[in-house]
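Progress report, Aim 2. The chain analyzed during this reporting quarter is listed below.
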Amino acid sequence: MYILSKKCTSRHTVPGTLLLLRMVSSSEVATALRPFYFAVHPDLFGRYPQQRQVNEDSLKLLSAHLESLLKQKRMLPSSPHSLPFYIRASNAPQDRGTFNLIKVPLERTVDTRLVLRRILESCNLSTEYVDKMPAAKNSSTSKPGSLNEAFQQQQHHSFYYRKRSEYNFGKEQEDEDDSPFEKEFDLFQFRIKKVRENETLIKWLRKNVVTATVRTKALQELQEEVEKLRDDVRKRLGLREIIYDCGWNLEHFRGCLKSLEKLAELHPGALDGLSDRTVVFAAFTGVSLEGHVMLFTGDVQRNWLELIKTIDKHDSYLSKLPAYEFALSQVLRNIRIGRRKFMPKAQAMAYASHLRKITTALLDYLGKSKFPKSWPPDLTKFELVVESEAGPLMVSPTGQLIVPATCPGSLLVDFLTNHLAEALEKQNSYDRQKHIERDLHARCVAQFRLLSLTKDDSVTPDRMIECLEKLLAEGGTGLELADLNLTITTYYSVLADGMVCIPWDWKR
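Predicted structure tokens for the chain:
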């Protein structure tokens, strides 16, 4: 299939020449990006909810961008210039929890081949398939008016196919165009699902408990070294606490501590601003909503130092947050402004901007309309969470009303009107379940003599309760969990540090 270009950009083109640009098909896009999909697929990051969420959000935006290029021959105005993706640093077992954050560029062009090439190059993946795609070719005509004629015919042809697609006329359209970018994901997820369906918890544990025990014991010496180093750095800098919250392995934590220690040696006195504060090694550099100093584990020391030197600026935004939250609460009839119970850390500076945007949008709405009469006079029972521009518009499993900062006032009011009852129901359910979960957690740790029992942020209380109840019911059937660190998540795995991961919906 070919489209016609109005203008020929090659300097060798002669008047009266038609430039025929070959369109890239959706199946070619899926084939070209197959190695990219397998490198960034969210299911590969089940143990790391923050990396998984970033990749999932970016893949949605990438799919929309590519679909617009293929079907509408245009770029979406909302497409960003680049998309963040996490990829594994290497496939070595010891580096399983180590990731690199890359920026995948979205070229501002309708040349799909160029866009695909830049995506693959950003991840150091082969572009051989893209390079072998048939390139554009020229054909000549002697009639001066034939260019306009052919272009109009092509425009008519494109319009016909667009309309047929919109109204689903006929079945001539290939199935591959119905969902051009999700076939690879579906196939990948299907394979994972089949493996899990044939695996029972007892069978899996029998094959992996020894490995987990050996790894846990082998890491004890390193854990003692890291704890000693953490205590030394904390005392030297007068810190309240040092937290490791990036999901990478223990060796990486030790490296972060040594980097901070070296920074203190190279710049004596420059880190005085950290006194009596909590430092968190995390996925970004800044100050969190809790006032913690966040240091990105992938940053160079210079960036850490710049943050610490300008920490007063970040603290000024932090001090303004209560006033911004109060203002939004007043606009929305005293609704409680909360933080999402299961979410990555956020920067105080960015959060302040989000609060201002959503408050302004609501005030603009109230300047033209009024809140619906069906609303209660007071919304104190409800909790609103404001997230980034690309955040969801949803009711969380805990009953919180999640809204993105760029949500228009009319859309936000309509969303609240339709979901207040659902939010209250989920909130009450969560309040009941969290106490049951705590009781089951304590019973499992004691009965199975676990070293620790944790869960992924993606595992909600109802899922955790179901999982723990099944574990307790199977307690006398040979579950070997003594002296293990157990995490409830969505997959089976033994991590490099001996952590045992099992899905919450494991099979008997």
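The first strand starts at residue 2 and ends at 4. Confidence is low (pLDDT under 50) at residues 1-21, 136-181. These observations will guide the mutagenesis work planned for the next reporting period.
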